[in-house]
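seq as requested:
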Amino acid sequence: MKALIFDTETTGINEPAIIEAAWVEVNDPFTLAVMDEFEQRYNPGKAIELGALATHHILDEELTDSPPASEFSLPPGTEYIIGHNVDYDWKVIGEPPVKRICTLALSRSLFPDVDSHTQSAMLYLFERDSARSLLQRAHSAKHDVMNCRIVLDYLLTKMGDITQATTWEELWQRSEQARIPKVMTFGKHKGTAIKDVPSDYKRWLLNQPDVDPYLVKALRGVVA
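struct tokens:
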């Protein structure tokens, strides 16, 4: 079962295209030993938005001779990809048929009282003395991957006190459970535990288009 910690940098928020991809293959949840790694920049065929430039500092002119973004694909045999808000990167690469393990969802589930769950914030929580150095090149896909590996290691240690995650499949199942929200984050019932949201509102929301599939599970009472 091939598992990759994966990250991308993109052109921005409007129909994003990939401009940089990186991954490391890790052998198992026990050691997270790196078995293989990859890093490549791509020509997106469109302009990079200013907001994205201000984040990753990759200039359009630096990508002129890079291979086209359409050439990227995950290596054969990939079954799991791991990342902080991994759905974004998964969508950018065309939603391939792999299972997604989200360290953002796990962070929120395991540390509900922390005021921020960004990858950078979690590094400051776990590695306060070295976080500043680790984040000097944040938003480089390769460095974000390696920082995600650090966060994942701490999450697995914390998780050992709660539930077993000895295989990638078990960790994926734990991630899926963590994605199901317990509290409404929008609307007139924002802040209300979903179990306490009125039934008529739940029925109305379930009939709306494009409702997040994990919110649907929560509204229907699915807990795992």
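Strands lie at 2-10, 18-26, 34-41, 78-83, 99-102.
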